[in-house]
Amino acid sequence: MLYEKAPAKINLTLDVLHKRLDGFHEVEMVMTTVDLADRVWIRAIEGGQIKIKSSVQFVPTDRKNLAYQAADLIRTTYGIKQGVEITLEKRIPVAAGLAGGSSDAAATLRGLNKLWKLGLGADRLAELGAQIGSDVPFCVYGGTALATGRGEVIQKISAPPNCWVILAKPVLSVSTGSIFKNLDLTSVQHPNTKDMLEALKTGDYKGMCRSVGNVLEPVTMDLYPEVTVLKEQMIKFGADTVQMSGSGPTVFGLVEHESRVPRIYNGLKGFCREVYAVRMLGERHLFD
Ligand SMILES: C[C@](O)(CO)[C@H](O)COP(=O)(O)OP(=O)(O)OC[C@H]1O[C@@H](n2ccc(N)nc2=O)[C@H](O)[C@@H]1O
Ligand SMILES: Nc1ncnc2c1ncn2[C@@H]1O[C@H](COP(=O)(O)OP(=O)(O)OP(=O)(O)O)[C@@H](O)[C@H]1O
Fold this sequence. Notes:
Blueprint: E1 2-19, E2 25-45, E3 50-54, H1 66-77, E4 83-89, H2 100-115, H3 122-130, H4 136-141, E5 144-148, E6 153-156, E7 164-169, H5 176-181, H6 193-202, H7 205-211, E8 213-214, H8 217-223, H9 225-236, E9 241-244, E10 251-255, H10 261-269, E11 274-279
Parallel strand pairs: 1-8, 3-4
Antiparallel strand pairs: 1-2, 2-4, 2-5, 5-6, 7-10, 7-11, 9-10
Helix pairs in contact: 1-2, 2-3, 6-7, 8-9
The structure holds 4-diphosphocytidyl-2-C-methyl-D-erythritol and adenosine-5'-triphosphate.
The site of adenosine-5'-triphosphate has 21 residues, from helix 1 and helix 2.
């Protein structure tokens, strides 16, 4: 039985430059992995099927599951006949803006590359991942990166300075497609990606906090006022900066001093069921 860790990502910045002819949006995002992870177990089985088991009932186990799609893609591309059972121990909240499904798909690609001794490099796995979803290539590498294109062009960058990340997810699921559809590009406030890259390069925690920005945040907040409330609460409880991740609805707060974490965590727990206090994974890449 093979094990792969599938960590969640957060978007320190998320900018949209323009809408492309293929319907996707050209983005520029600084992403990093955090220590909240699904566990993916993979084993070969008789019968040539792809079987998905999930610890969470409402996650699909058919070909709608991104891990299924990853296994199917790698099997057809490399003419593999052997069956495989993939067990997803879900820890990352679903439809949360934390790339849970994408990370499971990326972990499946890494795991099957090992199981079937395909000898594929990270870049090739990322290329395959791009056929499954825009966030999958980043999840293949993990660590910290600047993602451009529709999210699939990955450039490794310096890890953020050490800090705590508090994640809070309101009880609602957000469809990424509908948030992009509601984005009005004539009135967006673009984040300063250059300042963020500089802050990471120089290990400037305050500079990092000043440079967070996500153009999708106001779109999701307009549709779901709970997200605004959660952000305001997290600021009130003392986070250094707070922002929504991806298309939401999870918001994350950055906290430099560990002593401040319990107050924020406990304060949020009072009215939000899903709250996590985790570390960033920084430079720890997932591909070896
Ligand atoms: C919002 C982010 O999570 C930020 O990390 C990602 O950009 C979304 O990545 P994802 O969930 O892997 O998204 P995909 O499954 O590729 O796309 C879902 C839908 O989002 C929209 N979409 C996604 C990425 C992108 N660059 N432009 C888009 O317009 C498209 O309508 C697409 O049909
Ligand atoms: N392995 C999986 N884990 C969770 N959800 C999955 C998985 N495969 C497919 N899905 C479906 O995908 C939808 C989005 O789930 P996911 O948790 O990946 O969203 P997300 O965190 O918002 O992703 P992103 O940040 O990449 O937009 C869910 O509604 C679920 O039905």
